[in-house]
Amino acid sequence: MSTAAFSGLSRIMRSARFAFATVMLLSSAVAQAGPAEEANARIDGWSAAYTSNDPEAIVKIYAPDGILLGTVSPVISVGTEAIRKYFSLVKGSGNRNAIQERHTIVLRDDAVVVTGFYEFSGMKDGKPLVRPSRFTMLVTKRDGEWHIAHHHSSPHVMPKK
Fold this sequence. Notes:
This protein is α+β, with helices and mostly antiparallel strands. It has 4 helices and 6 strands. Strand 5 and strand 6 form a beta hairpin.
């Protein structure tokens, strides 16, 4: 191989390595989620756990000192046991949750507020029951894990027709 050909091949190899390194760096930056994405993923996990009718899976998503103002509760549920009690009726109920709209505010790298509308659905007295609701959740990161620290849910007042 001539010196000119070797030099050209060497430049191509350097360019290819540079392009590969650039693509790898850019793809890792895109793959890393920020606080908003991580907090919303946790909320999506909450919705999935509720829909699976698994109270223990739901409880694990809350911080140990989490606060819940439940959609149908007359009391404030504080801490794991109170939250477990609130969601105990979900077990085997067939109830579902679907998040419809949300807005996210990043307060800090470890604190995110998400508010929006979701819908609970299930059966009551053999008939389908749909309960439009609204929510606000404060999701915080402690010891590398995101948990719901505060969750307020209430019926969604529908516009009058």
